[in-house]
Specification:
heterodimer, A: 468 residues, Heat Shock Protein 90, 5-stranded mixed β-sheet, two-stranded antiparallel sheet, 7 strands, B: Rossmann fold
Chain lengths: 468, 132
C-alpha cells in the first residue's frame, strides 16, 4: 500500500517540477530577450541623440566660421567652414542611404564621418530599419530631413559668400543680408535639432519606464508562481505524510488483527485440550476432537488467505489461457470436505470455457466465492443449491456464482468487502476472503457485483476483462 | 459458587464459549452459565434479568473482538445503565488480543475488574472470585 502511494506521489511531483521549471525558464527567457532588445533600442536612441549633438556642433561651428570668413575674408575660415559642415553633411548622406536601404559600408563610413562611435553603428542602423515606421522615429526622421534641407541652404550661403569674396564683390549690404540669413538659418536649425533630440529623448524615457514596469511584473509573476508552487508542494507533502501515517496505522492494525486471528484458533485448541483432559466420556471426547479439527481448519484457511493476499499484492499478472470449467471443478473438489459440501446441489452453465487471464488470480477469486457459497449454505432449505455460470460479454468474461444460502442483511451489504469485516453468523469467516476477492478483481481491472436477500440467497457477478 | 455468582459469557466463538462453560463447570462447579454472542445480546440479557430479583452478583466474561457490538462497544453501552444495576455486575475481559492499544484500553477502563488471556485461566479467576 505505501509503495503505490509513493509512486503516484513521485509521478505527480515529477510532472509538476518539469512544468514549473519550464515556466520559470520561459519567463526568464522572455525577461532576458526583452531586456536585451530594450537596452539595444535605448542605447541606439542615445547614439542618435549623441549624433545630433555632433551635428549641431558642426553646424554651429560652420556658421561661426562662415561669419568670421565674411568679416575677415581669411581663407582659413572658409576651410574651417567646409570642414565643420562635413559632419551634418555626412549625417545627411546617412539618412538618405538608410531611407533607400543603401549600402551598409557607405552608411557606416558616413556615420563615422558624422562622429558617431564605431560601436554604436550596428545599433543605429538596426534602430532605423526597425522603427522607421514607429511614430517617435518617424517624426525624428522627418525633422532630420527638414534640418538637412537647412544644411543644404547653409552650404549654398557659404558657396555664395566664397564666390563673392573670391571676386572681391561683396558689398556691405550683401554682407549684412547674408549674415542675417546665416543667423536665421542657424536659429531654425537649432529648433529642428531640439525637436529631434526631444522626440528621441521622450521615447527613450518612455521605453525605460515600460521596461521597469515589465521587469517588475515579470519578477512578481515568477515569485508568485514559485511561492504558489512551493505552498502547493508543502501542502501535498503534508497530505502524503498523513496518508503514509494512516497507512502505517492500517498496517499496525492489520498485524494485530492478523495475529489475533492466527492466535484465536490456538487458544480455542488449548481450551479444548484443557477440558478434554477432564473428560471421560469417549463420545464427548470425539466431539472435542471434531472441534479441534474445525479450529485448525480455520487457522489453515486464514493462513492460506494471508498468502493469497500477499501473492495478489506482490506478484505481477501472468497472462495465460485459463480453463474456467476445470478451475471451477478443481475448486469444488477442494471444498468437498467442508460441512454440507456433499449435500449441496452444484450446477454449472459454462458458456465460456477458456479465457486469456491470470490463472492464479482467477483461482483465488473462484476459490473464495465458491467456498463462501458452501460455508453460508442454509441447512433449513430442503434443497441447497449453488449455480455457477460463465459467459462472454463486451470482451469480458462474466462469472456468476449464485446460492440459495443464508443471504446477507441489506445494511451489511456495503461492508462485506472491507478487511476483517465479519457478520453475525460468522464463526465461519475470517473477514479476509471477500476483501481479497475485491483486491484481486481490481488487479485484473474487473468488477464485482453482489445481490443478496436475507434467507433467500446471494449472487456474486464477476466481470473480468480478457487479457488480450 | 452457584449461590454467590451468576455467570454471563459474552463471546462470538462457539468453541471458546464451550471451553469457558466447561471449565467453569469442571473446575468451579458452576452449573448455570448464561451466554451471549455479542454486546447487543449481552445488554439484552442484562435487561431481561434485571427485572427478576436475584441476590447473586453477575460476573460477565467479556471477549473483545465480536461482530455487531464488540467488547468496548458493550462497555460504552454498559456505562449508560442505572448505577445500582451496575453495582451488581462485575466485568472481566477475556481475550486473545496482543494489540497494546486494546490491552491498555481494557486495563484503564474503570468497569473492567480484570483482563485475562484466553483460554480462560480458571485458577486466576477462582482467586479473584474468592477475594470478592
Amino acid at each position: 500500500m505505501p509503495r503505490s502511494y509513493l509512486n503516484t506521489f513521485n509521478k505527480l511531483t515529477q510532472r509538476h517540477v518539469i512544468s514549473f521549471v519550464l515556466f520559470v525558464f520561459l519567463c526568464s527567457s522572455i525577461l532576458i530577450v526583452t531586456n536585451y532588445y530594450t537596452l539595444k533600442t535605448v542605447s541606439a536612441v542615445r547614439a542618435y541623440i549623441n549624433g545630433e549633438s555632433q551635428y549641431s556642433k558642426g553646424e554651429k561651428e560652420a556658421a561661426r566660421n562662415l561669419i568670421m570668413y565674411i568679416n575677415t575674408e581669411e581663407p582659413e575660415y572658409w576651410n574651417k567652414f567646409q570642414q565643420a559642415l562635413q559632419v551634418p553633411l555626412s549625417d545627411s548622406i546617412v539618412r538618405v542611404e538608410l531611407t533607400k536601404n543603401g549600402d551598409v559600408a557607405v552608411i557606416k563610413r558616413a556615420l563615422i564621418a558624422g562622429q558617431s562611435h564605431e560601436e554604436d553603428l550596428e545599433g543605429m542602423i538596426w534602430l532605423f530599419h526597425t522603427f522607421n515606421k514607429v511614430s517617435f522615429m518617424k517624426n525624428a526622421i522627418n525633422t532630420w530631413q527638414e534640418a538637412d534641407i537647412l544644411i543644404g541652404l547653409k552650404r549654398q550661403l557659404g558657396d555664395r559668400v566664397h564666390q563673392l569674396i573670391s571676386k572681391q564683390e561683396m558689398t556691405e549690404e550683401q554682407r549684412k543680408e547674408i549674415i542675417a540669413s546665416i543667423n536665421a538659418n542657424t536659429t531654425e536649425l537649432t529648433l529642428k535639432e531640439k525637436d529631434f533630440s526631444g522626440n528621441l529623448g521622450t521615447a527613450a524615457r518612455a521605453i525605460n519606464t515600460y521596461l521597469f514596469y515589465f521587469n517588475f511584473l515579470m519578477t512578481i509573476i515568477i515569485i508568485g508562481i514559485a511561492s504558489t508552487y512551493a505552498i502547493s508542494m508543502i501542502k501535498k507533502l503534508k497530505n502524503q505524510n498523513e496518508i503514509l501515517m494512516n497507512t502505517n496505522n492500517e498496517l499496525d492494525k492489520f498485524v494485530y488483527s492478523a495475529s489475533h486471528d492466527l492466535r484465536a484458533p490456538i487458544t480455542s485448541l488449548k481450551g479444548l485440550i484443557e477440558i478434554a483432559k477432564e473428560e471421560t466420556d469417549p463420545e464427548i471426547i470425539q466431539q472435542y476432537l471434531y472441534l479441534m479439527k474445525e479450529s485448525l481448519n480455520k487457522q489453515d484457511e486464514f493462513i492460506r488467505e494471508i498468502i493469497d493476499f500477499s501473492r495478489n499484492k506482490r506478484k505481477e499478472i501472468v497472462r495465460q489461457p485459463v480453463n474456467l470449467s476445470k478451475t471451477i471443478d478443481q475448486v469444488i473438489r477442494h471444498h468437498c470436505y467442508m460441512p454440507n459440501a456433499n449435500n449441496i446441489n452444484i450446477t454449472k452453465d459454462i458458456l465460456l470455457e477458456t479465457i486469456p487471464s491470470d490463472p492464479l488470480r482467477i483461482e483465488i477469486i473462484l476459490n473464495n466465492l465458491i467456498s463462501n457459497a458452501i460455508k453460508y449454505s442454509d441447512e433449513k432449505k430442503e434443497r441447497m443449491t449453488i449455480h455457477i455460470k460463465t459467459y462472454l460479454e463486451n470482451h469480458s468474461a462474466i462469472m456468476e456464482i449464485a446460492d440459495n444460502g443464508v443471504g446477507i442483511k441489506k445494511e451489511n451489504l456495503s461492508s462485506i468487502f472491507q478487511m476483517f469485516y465479519v457478520t453475525q453468523n460468522s464463526n465461519k469467516g475470517t473477514g479476509l476472503g471477500l476483501y481479497i476477492v475485491q483486491e484481486t478483481v481490481a488487479k485484473l481491472q474487473g468488477s464485482i457485483l453482489v445481490e443478496s436477500e436475507l434467507h433467500k440467497g446471494t449472487k456474486f457477478t464477476l466481470q473480468i476483462p480478457l487479457l488480450l | 459458587m452457584n449461590d454467590k455468582f451468576r455467570f454471563l459469557v459474552v463471546d462470538d466463538n462457539k468453541i471458546d464459549q464451550l471451553v469457558t462453560r466447561q471449565l467453569l463447570k469442571i473446575k468451579l462447579g458452576v452449573t448455570e452459565v448464561n451466554q451471549a454472542g455479542n454486546g447487543v445480546e449481552a445488554l439484552e440479557w442484562i435487561k431481561v434479568n434485571s427485572e427478576v430479583p436475584d441476590a447473586r452478583e453477575v460476573i460477565i466474561l467479556l471477549d473483545i473482538k465480536m461482530p455487531e457490538m464488540d467488547g468496548f462497544g458493550f462497555l460504552e453501552a454498559f456505562e449508560e445503565l442505572d448505577g445500582k444495576l451496575k453495582d451488581t455486575i462485575k466485568i472481566i475481559m477475556v481475550s486473545s488480543t496482543l494489540d497494546p492499544i486494546d490491552i491498555e484500553r481494557a486495563e484503564c477502563h474503570k468497569q473492567v475488574k480484570k483482563l485475562l488471556t484466553k483460554p480462560l485461566p480458571i485458577t486466576e479467576l477462582a482467586d479473584y472470585l474468592a477475594s470478592l
